[in-house]
Amino acid sequence: MLHLYDDRPIIACSTGLQSNSAIGLIRISGFSDLSIFQDFFKIDLANVKARYSHFTSIIDGDITLDEIVLTFYSAPNSYNGENILELGVHGNQINIQRIISLFINSKLVRAAKEGEFSYRALKNKKLTLSQVEGLDLLLNANSSFMLDQGLQVLSGDLHKQYLSLHDSFLKLKSSVEISIDFSEDVGEEQCAILLKESLLEFSSRVTSLWRRVQSDRSDLANPSVSLVGQTNAGKSTLFNYLLANDRSIVSDQAGTTRDYVSEYLTISGNTYRLVDTAGLRETEDNIEKIGIDRAIEISSNSFFKILVVNPLQTNFEDYKSLQDESFDLLIISHFDQLKDFSGDEFLSKLPSSKVSIAAELSMNTTSFKVLQDGSIGPNLESGSMGAEDLEASGSIGPSSVNGPMGANSSQPGSIGADKSGSIGPLITYIEGLISHKFNDLCSDNPLLIGRHRECINNIYLSLQEFQSLTENVEDIAIISSELNILEAKVSELLGIVSPDDVLNNIFTNFCIGK
Ligand SMILES: Nc1nc2c(c(=O)[nH]1)N(C=O)[C@@H](CNc1ccc(C(=O)N[C@@H](CCC(=O)O)C(=O)O)cc1)CN2
Ligand SMILES: Nc1nc2c(ncn2[C@@H]2O[C@H](COP(=O)(O)OP(=O)(O)OP(=O)(O)O)[C@@H](O)[C@H]2O)c(=O)[nH]1
Ligand SMILES: [Mg+2]
Q1: Which of 47, 111, 246, 310 has the fewest CB atoms within 10 Å of its CB?
Q2: Is the same domain home to 15 and 75?
Q3: pLDDT tens-digit profile of 90-136?
Q4: For this UniProt entry, which segments traverse the membrane (predicted)?
């Protein structure tokens, strides 16, 4: 276990051990006096000023090993609160290894374990546990979104929110203690009021964090946009238009797409995985069934769900497996071929969707119609609509669209020039909906880390327990002991107490040298 390691001075390369680079940074941390390393440097270490860079040579006896830049950070004013010596050496891996071996062989230092520099920062209160977790996100991020998430957690804002939760817990605790110790002085009624007020404040903080946990947005780390629907609905057609690339096979043969096809799509700087799936239908073909099962699963796990429906070939039975699903967008395709379309009734038989659009999925269309928008309620003309309606109104399409943000507010996506084709406005509109949802969810930053979500859930459950006790139990001693359970859980969220396995999980995720 990491935390059981001794606190001897440690050394590691902090700039990676995979490949050669121009410069490598070696860090030594936790020594009591810089002078113990005098033998290895040409410069007189007594003349080294903290936080100044010094150009010097590393020596092994008479041999000069490298010309380096040396920086000393004097405890406690360093990254982890210990004395730190940083050596900027030439970044050849053999060179780096040779210098590290020189120090380790001297027995003055030992090789650091994964994350050990940062572990010491935590121990010395230079970083809080959630900041360390932010570092973990940052160092292991594979997208600019996750990098920003990590930086935000590292900045300590999240920890400040947890601190106010802790503060309001302490108020609650002291109101219980007052009830036990001073109820005669303060008066029972006054005690009850105090308890009620502090419980209310704590509970509202817990509830708002808990709500954040409930809106599960772990999918934001790797958001996918899925297209599902019956065979021949036009999923692959729309997929190709969104990508501006004929990636998926389109044909008038039902069952063309037999397994999912996915490609990355960038909209307003965010990357989504766009997935075209096998069409839903009754089938005896086992392989096709597997494809359909996958389609349903992909849809249920995706961040933005699009259902494509061809009203000319609709079998409502096929939607049974999607009946519990709520879609972000419904596209009624083949609008060009519709003579008679009873919108309201038709929509009511489909799975629910926030926004519904009727469109012709072809290069020749500029018009589409927003039938319904989640934020403004049904917007469907009663009676029937047909292609004539679309043509007659002429301007139907982006300018007449009153969707959640209007087509104009959406940023141009990566498709660029190709979108100048006439289907462009529809694609831009769909991209706008996707971006809008993403930005909306991201505004409640930062994402909660898995461990925090778990802690918050535990606090919430324990609080429920506590609340019912205060309502039903007279004995303040019982209430007080339940409060201790709650306290342990709040402390765990803040990292005031951290079970060993929690620390171990976090730090073994770090690289050596961090
Ligand atoms: N050369 C170098 N670059 C680096 C790091 C490092 O350790 N060394 N970092 C490692 O992750 C990151 C920067 N993080 C750091 C955080 C705190 C301190 C530090 O010296 N803190 C002191 C003084 C603060 C101040 O002067 O405001 C302190 O907290 O007392 C240094 C780097 C990225 N770049
Ligand atoms: N007239 C018209 N044809 C369309 C429209 N949308 C798609 N099509 C045509 O309908 C046929 C089926 O389209 P696809 O995109 O392959 O349908 P799919 O949903 O991927 O079908 P599967 O892969 O079989 O599940 C193709 O011939 C398309 O050209 C539309 O809005 N109007
Ligand atoms: Mg297809």
Answers
A1: 47
A2: yes
A3: 999 999 999 999 999 999 999 999 999 999 999 999 999 999 999 98
A4: none
Distance 270 CA to ligand 1 centre (A): 30
How far, in Å, from the CA of 252 to the mean position of ligand 2? 6
Does residue 371 form part of some domain? yes
pLDDT score at 386: 38
Residue 128: strand, helix, or coil? coil
Ligand 1 within 6 A of CB of 77? yes
Tell me the DSSP string of 205-244: HHHHHHHHHHS--GGGGS-EEEEEEBTTSSHHHHHHHHHT
| Residue 512 lies inside a defined structural domain of this protein | no
The pLDDT-based confidence of 21 (bands split at 50, 70, 90) is: very high
Question: CA-to-CA distance for 460 and 456, rounded, in angstroms?
Answer: 6
Q: Per-residue pLDDT tens for 416-475?
A: 334 455 899 999 999 999 999 988 877 766 678 889 999 999 999 999 999 998 888 878
Residues 224 and 211 in one domain: no
Which strands sit side by side in the sheet containing 84-90, from one edge to the other? 53-60, 63-73, 84-90, 23-29, 10-13, 110-111
Known binding residues = 27, 86, 126, 232-237, 251-257, 276-279, 514
Atom of ligand 2 nearest to the CA of 233: 19
Ligand 2 centroid – CA 309 distance (Å): 10
Mutate-to-test residue for ligand 2 from 243, 247, 248, 251, highest number of ligand atoms within 8 A of CB = 251
Does 189 lie in the same domain as 62? Answer: no
Residue nearest to atom 14 of ligand 2 (CA): 234
Among 442, 462, 478, identify where a domain stops: 442
pLDDT value for 250: 97
Its domain, for residue 269, covers 218-442
Q: How far is the CA of 386 from the centre of ligand 3 (A)?
A: 25
pTM metric for this prediction: 0.65
**Domain count of the fold of the chain:** 3
Phi and psi at residue 44, in whole multiples of 5°?
-75, 110
